Amino acid sequence: MKFKGYRRADGSIGIRNHILIIPTVSCVNRVAMEICARTRAVTFTHPYGCTFDAEENNTTEHAYIGYGRHPNVGAVLVLSLGCETASAVKVADAIRETGKPVEMLTVQQAGGARASGRQGIEIVQRLQEELDKIPLTEADLSELIIGLECGSSDAFSGLTANPAVGEAADLIVDAGGTVVLSEITEMVGAENVLARRACDVQVRDELLQLIKKYEIDLSFSTEDDSGIFISPGNIAGGLTTIEEKSLGCIYKAGTRAITEVVGYGNKPTRKGVIIMDTPGFDIASVTGKVAGGAHMVLFTTGKGTPTGSPIAPVVKISSNNATFERLREDTDISAGDILEGKKTLQQVGREIFDLVLRIANGDEAKSEYFSVQEFAIPNVSVVKKEAIHAELAKLNDFRFVQPT
Amino acid sequence: MKAVIRIREQDHVATAITSLEPGDVAQITGVSNGETIVVREAIPAGHKIALRPIAPEEEILKYGEVIGAATAPIDAGHWVHVHNCWGLKARRFS
Question: CA of B82, closest CA in chain A: separation in Å?
Answer without folding.
Answer: 5
